[in-house]
Amino acid sequence: MRFSxxxxxxxxxxxxKGISLARRSxxxxxxxxxxxxxxxxxxxxxxxxxxxxxxxxxxxxxxxVAQDETQNPPIMGKNPDQEMED
Length: 86
Known about the structure:
Order of helices and strands: HHHHH
Number of helices: 5
Distance between the termini: 28 Å
Number of strands: 0
CATH topology: 434 Repressor (Amino-terminal Domain)
Largest sheet: none
CATH architecture: Orthogonal Bundle
CATH class: Mainly Alpha
Strand content: under 5%
Number of domains: 1
Shape: globular
Radius of gyration: 12 Å
């Protein structure tokens, strides 16, 4: 799975807010939105996003990226216990 697809799924599943990630990562909300919508970012910007994610969300996103393409895609669903606080 592409990083941007994994990011979009992670944002949805963990109910994260782009504005909060922008503040935590030092990126602009536009950069977060661009990446979430499939656009490209520099690798250092992607690293900043990963560092800004809560640990469970980061692990989840990286597991999606590492997932074999032949495996079933993740099921989009909310996880009410994993909400990011400002």
